[in-house]
Design brief:
This protein is an alpha/beta fold. The protein has 3 domains: 10-81 and 107-191, Rossmann fold, CATH 3.40.50.300; 192-288; 289-394. Helices cover 51% and strands 15% of the residues.
Length: 394
């Protein structure tokens, strides 16, 4: 039976938790609706399902999956439904020409992945992506797949779990789907969530800190995922990620910040004019700090009065320290900077430590946080104790 959350959207992480349980039910042969993630383009539906396949827990059981993503609506029919083959058949004593369908190529891929599963807790996630583009012919194949778990009489492997993803607006070319198909899926309207994107994608992929800190600031949160446009670029987690990748590589090539005119030009092509205008102004702030000089003379340094500048400094200094954490004098300077933040803006002190903890997960180094924490405790044990409870909850 089709279900919605009373028309409300949930963040992607919430919906994926539902998918986990649904997948386990599917591979155990239960008659459940297939999850259909619906949301604006670029929010990370495909990437998140791929990440989920790397492993998840339900209770004490650990599950892993092989991931296959198919743009079902855009696939040639013969790839999904096979090719008709002629055969001789006899009907009531009359010999005539009949049709037999070849084994679909997509089925071959699924059976290959299915054969790689070694345990009952290993399975295949098959994502049918861009389902909003399905026309009548593809929907006929989809109806058979969702009703009987087969295509052209060829059954899916039992350890394949199906999920669907698509958009809903006319701007994305969404077509009306058969009501009988809608009744066989569980509609899960989702929206982009910055914290989920940051933890699951941006931090592990080392997305440019200026982009992460800009989008994490409440002043600019409206630019994280805008309504889609068809005649100009617009901001989404996908477009920000790609802009950030360009920025990181460009800065490495030149060993300098990107010139403003170049960033404005490229930024507008990725995330649109309004978002780029605000981001370029922030990028100037982010790069104006001489972090090594600040940390080496922190006793004589006064924090900026502007909150946006303080916020940028917290990110810039944390990321600089992460790349130079073995330097003891920098450790002491960074610890004193965290204490300065705690005096005026406690949330920035926590933010700085949060960056350190995230970096440990990326680098596989367990000593970065301890170096800073122990230094803070030596400098001011009372303030350290005040910060500790908040830091533990990160």
């Amino acid at each position: 039976m089709s279900q919605t959350f009373e028309g409300k959207t949930k963040n992607l992480g919430f919906a994926l938790d539902i998918c986990k349980t649904n997948f386990v039910m599917q591979i155990n042969g239960m008659d459940v609706a297939f999850p259909y993630l619906q949301g604006n383009p670029g929010l990370g539906k495909t990437a998140s399902l791929c990440e989920l396949a790397s492993g998840f827990n339900i209770g004490e059981q650990k599950f892993t999956a092989h991931h296959l993503s198919s743009h079902f609506a855009l696939k040639p029919l013969e790839e999904t439904g096979g090719i008709p083959q002629f055969e001789r058949i006899n009907i009531n004593g009359v010999d005539m020409l009949g049709t037999e369908w070849s084994f679909p190529d997509i089925m071959k891929q699924l059976y290959i992945l299915s054969g790689k599963c070694q345990t009952d807790n290993e399975f295949v996630i098959w994502l049918l992506d861009d389902m909003h583009l399905c026309g009548p012919t593809h929907m006929a194949l989809l109806y058979e797949l969702l009703t009987e778990r087969k295509l052209r009489e060829y059954h899916l492997p039992k350890n394949v779990a199906i999920t669907l993803a698509g958009n809903t607006s006319s701007k994305t070319g969404a077509k009306t789907m058969f009501s009988a198909i809608v009744n066989r899926v569980c509609l899960l309207p989702v929206h982009a969530d910055f914290e989920y994107w940051e933890q699951k994608y941006a931090i592990p992929q080392r997305i440019h800190p200026a982009v992460r800190s800009f989008l994490g600031n409440d002043l600019y949160s409206q630019f994280f995922h805008e309504d889609e446009l068809v005649d100009s670029a617009w901001a989404s987690p996908r477009s920000w990620s790609r802009l950030a990748i360009y920025m990181s590589i460009r800065e490495q090539m030149e060993n300098n910040p990107i010139p403003v005119d170049e960033l404005s030009y490229v930024g507008e092509g990725h995330v649109g004019k309004n978002a780029t205008s605000e981001f370029v102004a922030y990028y100037k702030i982010f790069n104006k700090f001489d972090v090594p000089k600040i940390l080496s003379n922190i006793e004589n340094y006064s924090l900026p009065d502007n909150l946006a500048e303080k916020y940028a400094l917290a990110y810039a200094s944390a990321n600089y320290y992460i790349n130079n954490y073995k330097n003891d004098s920098l450790t002491k300077g960074f610890a004193k900077l965290v204490l300065k933040f705690s005096d005026t803006n406690g949330e920035l002190a926590i933010l700085s430590m949060k960056e350190i903890i995230a970096a440990e997960k990326i680098l596989g180094v367990r000593s970065i946080y301890n170096r800073v924490a122990m230094t803070i405790e030596k400098i001011d044990s009372k303030k350290f104790n005040d910060l500790l409870e908040e830091i533990i909850n990160i």
